[in-house]
């Protein structure tokens, strides 16, 4: 260990400020063993913001070893596909009541058992003022949960409701995706609220019962077309509103009435379906003059003409507010907020959306590109093949380069593995490309054509493997993509194929394999000890790892096997 360094001459407050720009594992890796003084500052630092979302297991293990619970003010736990079993492992290291300084907690797709344990102990977190529960899917991984699903869901909802009601007096920020709790007490402290699906009556109740609410994000699944007023009374404090209205049509009259009731609103984000009165820039100018931020995405039921954009081309829109609008495929939306993140490789050269801003700005935040004319159907495949046969890739590259910076592309979806050959001119321009998805099943004929290629920049691979000659296909893929860290295989037919992929991709951090329930004669005990599936893996015998077997609710015949791998 060094006894002195440049950092020894910095005040502790400056060191703490520097730490605030790094993630927790980066602080430990960058500053540990710099000097005795810096190590002392690290031990006393009590403002760690721990984000375990998509973290590598080796970094997770490092943080759990080196940081004390009392040093943490923000914590994000995730049992998502790339970090399976994280919450259960975390709870073997710590008890929730140890986090005496915790102010913010976010839970992402947490497993049943861990979630129940956390909810039962939330009341110990006396300093907690922000709570977020994100759950896009329910994972079932134990035999008991599989056969008693409805009972488990009822228990989960009951536990969550009780925990939130108990926390309400101390919370000023609450976020519950796909879940709604109506206020049952005075909520004078709550300032920021994000809820799941609600009715229009519940929307009105929330705003009337939470008088000091500053921001609200909510999704209305109700018929609002017969309600002249979305709100019946004014709200004096609300400044930020994100409102998504589904299963109904909205008129500009309703929008105007809503904004008249929210007299202090400065930020509005609105998703809705309606008629062409929503596409009137002059009416929007009148009601949005006091807004600092306006973003909307409307599905317009009538076909608009290009003339409609003229009302969004005034000095108010382009100079004073600098708000830009585009119209594409029945949708009118603001740019760049709702600008496309996903773009189609071939449509870029033949289709230009109507927009009040330069085309390159429209695609400035596009990070995902698809090289398929349509999703994997017969007609789309035929059109795709004809296009590739008769269109010069060099010409296509020049056209696309005028609309999008190829360096910003991080993810690409191909119809077939052999499309790599067709698009080889583009890859040197895609310096940021790290994720590749192959839509069609990879068979022996396809890998034979690609056996001499190497794509060293790919870190995430999504694919489906043929059930014939799978071992040979795997060996070619290991050479074609030598630096894969994240692997997602949508169809795997044997345990040995799965283990070969885990052992063969030497940089692998996590893997997910989807298979039918008959795969390998899966036994009930494997749900309780999924590590038994990994016996035979040379790599995992030398590594720490977690493994989970999950059934998805909408695909009861399928099982997903997920592995999160630590350092050897």
Summarize the structure.
The chain has 568 residues and is α/β, with parallel strands linked by helices. It is built from 21 helices and 23 strands.
**N- and C-termini, Cα separation:** 25 Å
Radius of gyration: 27 Å
For the largest beta-sheet, the strand count, sense and barrel status come to: 13 strands, mixed
- Classified by CATH, the class of the domain at 180-338 is Alpha Beta
What is the typical, i.e. mean, pLDDT? 87
Strand content: 15-25%
| CATH architecture name of the domain at 180-338 | Alpha-Beta Horseshoe
| Count of strand segments | 23
Kindly report the CATH topology of the domain at 180-338.
Leucine-rich repeat, LRR (right-handed beta-alpha superhelix)
Question: Which spans of ≥5 residues are poorly predicted at pLDDT below 50?
Answer: none
Query: Total number of helical segments?
Result: 21
Helix content: 25-40%
Tell me the strand order in the biggest sheet. 1-2-3-4-6-7-8-9-10-11-13-12-15
Oligomer designation: single chain
């Amino acid at each position: 260990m060094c006894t002195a360094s440049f950092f020894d001459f910095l005040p502790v407050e400056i060191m703490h400020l520097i730490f605030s720009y790094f993630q927790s594992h980066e602080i430990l890796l960058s500053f540990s063993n710099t000097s005795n003084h810096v190590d002392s500052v690290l031990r006393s630092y009590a403002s760690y913001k721990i984000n375990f979302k998509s973290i590598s297991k080796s970094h997770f293990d490092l943080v759990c070893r080196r940081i004390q619970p009392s040093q943490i003010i923000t914590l994000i736990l995730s049992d998502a596909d790339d970090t399976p079993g994280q919450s259960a492992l975390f709870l073997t290291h710590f008890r929730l009541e140890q986090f005496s300084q915790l102010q913010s907690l976010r839970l992402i797709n947490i497993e049943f058992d861990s979630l129940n344990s956390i909810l039962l102990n939330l009341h110990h977190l006396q300093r907690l003022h922000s709570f977020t529960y994100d759950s896009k899917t329910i994972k079932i991984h134990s035999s008991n949960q599989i056969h008693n699903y409805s009972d488990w869901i009822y228990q989960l909802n009951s536990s969550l409701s009780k925990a939130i009601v108990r926390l309400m007096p101390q919370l000023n920020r609450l976020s519950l995706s796909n879940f709604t709790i109506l206020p049952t007490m005075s909520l004078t402290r709550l300032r920021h609220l994000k809820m799941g699906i609600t009715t229009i009556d519940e929307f009105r109740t929330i705003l009337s019962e939470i008088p000091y609410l500053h921001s609200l994000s909510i999704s209305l699944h109700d018929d609002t077309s017969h309600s002249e007023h979305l709100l019946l009374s004014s709200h004096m404090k609300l400044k930020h509103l994100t409102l998504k209205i589904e299963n109904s049509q909205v008129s500009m009259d309703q929008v105007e009435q809503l904004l008249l009731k929210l007299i202090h609103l400065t930020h509005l984000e609105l998703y809705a379906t309606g008629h062409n009165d929503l596409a009137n820039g002059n009416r929007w100018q009148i009601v949005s003059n006091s807004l600092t931020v306006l973003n909307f995405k409307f599905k317009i039921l009538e076909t608009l003409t290009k003339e409609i954009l003229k009302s969004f081309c005034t000095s108010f829109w382009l100079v004073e507010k600098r708000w830009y609008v585009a119209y594409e495929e029945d949708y009118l939306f603001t740019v760049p907020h709702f600008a496309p993140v996903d773009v189609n490789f071939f449509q870029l050269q033949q289709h230009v959306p109507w927009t009040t801003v330069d085309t390159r700005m429209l695609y400035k935040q596009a990070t995902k590109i698809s090289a398929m004319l349509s999703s994997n159907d017969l007609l789309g495949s035929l059109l795709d093949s004809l296009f590739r046969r008769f269109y010069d890739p060099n010409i296509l590259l020049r056209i696309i380069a005028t609309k999008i910076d190829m360096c910003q592309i991080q993810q690409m979806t191909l119809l077939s593995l052999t499309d790599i050959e067709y698009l080889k001119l583009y890859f040197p321009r895609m310096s940021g490309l790290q994720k590749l998805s192959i839509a069609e099943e990879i068979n022996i004929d396809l890998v034979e054509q690609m056996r001499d290629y190497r794509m060293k920049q790919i870190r995430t691979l999504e694919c489906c493997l043929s059930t014939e000659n799978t071992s040979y296909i795997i060996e070619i893929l290991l050479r074609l993509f030598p630096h894969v860290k994240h692997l997602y295989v949508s169809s795997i037919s044997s345990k040995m194929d799965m283990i070969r992929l885990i052992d063969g991709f030497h940089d692998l951090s996590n893997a997910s394999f989807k298979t039918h329930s008959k795969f390998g004669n899966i036994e009930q005990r494997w749900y309780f000890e999924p590590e038994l599936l990994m016996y035979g893996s040379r790599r995992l015998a030398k590594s720490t790892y977690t493994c989970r077997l999950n059934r998805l609710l909408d695909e009861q015949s399928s099982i997903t096997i997920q592995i999160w791998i630590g350092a050897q």
